[in-house]
Specification:
The protein is about 35% helix and about 15% strand. With about 210 residues, it is an alpha/beta fold. It has one domain: Aspartate Aminotransferase, domain 2 (3-Layer(aba) Sandwich), CATH 3.40.640.10. The longest helix has 18 residues, at about 35-55.
């Protein structure tokens, strides 16, 4: 939430909850030890469970991993966790954050196939199917749900269905949409969901950490 002018006369007019109120800042004055029982059981576990509830996950097939860093930090952490040098990721790029995924893959020396579109265009599902059918080296698919730069909403259900039918692992960056747009992680059958400020993984895959 943006703070009022009385709390903070300087407002950051950029996407995302960047401005904070005095109430939030006051709560942050409390020091917590990471090994403290009240902190771990009272705060950390509550946050982890609430994230899963928002993702419509009622069973134990998924877990959450709290990450202290930016959205880019979380995407990079997910890439390094989900993929090895032997894997290849199809990156659906129709905006600045899709392009950032490409840069992360390049920096990490992860093999990738870029499906690049104009930032006003929605990915074509049949094109995605064709790429997956033709490039047998692809093991993962990464896509941004809502591109913050334009607000375009990618058809995540159709994309997820195509990816899972091809037997690939799917990574979804939902930084700008999670909590504002209904998203059922089990219906989508997602493997990795990146939201602010954590990532949600399938339980069996989190062991890779």
């Amino acid at each position: 939430m943006y703070s009022s002018k009385l709390d903070n006369p300087y407002l950051l007019m950029t996407p995302g909850p960047l401005s904070t109120s005095k109430g939030v800042r006051k709560a942050m004055l409390q020091d917590w030890c990471t090994w403290d029982k009240d902190y771990n059981e009272g705060i950390v576990q509550t946050i982890r469970k609430e994230i899963l509830r928002l993702a419509c996950c009622e069973d134990d097939s998924y877990t959450t991993v709290l990450l202290q860093g930016s959205g880019t930090f979380a995407v990079e952490a997910t890439f390094t966790t989900a993929m090895t040098k032997k894997d290849k990721v199809l990156i659906i790029n129709n905006g600045a954050y899709g392009q950032r995924m490409v840069k992360i893959a390049e920096a990490l020396r992860i093999n990738y196939h870029e499906y690049s579109l104009n930032e006003t265009m929605v990915p074509d599902i049949e094109t995605i199917r064709t790429i997956l059918n033709c490039d047998k080296e692809i093991t993962h698919v990464a896509v941004v749900h809502c591109e913050t730069t334009t607000g375009i909403l990618n058809p995540i259900l159709k994309i997820a269905n195509a990816v899972k039918q091809a037997g690939k692992t799917i990574i979804v960056d939902a930084m700008s949409s999670f909590g504002g747009i209904p998203l059922d992680i089990t219906e989508l059958d997602l493997d990795f969901l990146i939201v602010r400020p954590i990532s949600v993984f399938r339980v069996f895959q989190v062991l890779l950490l």
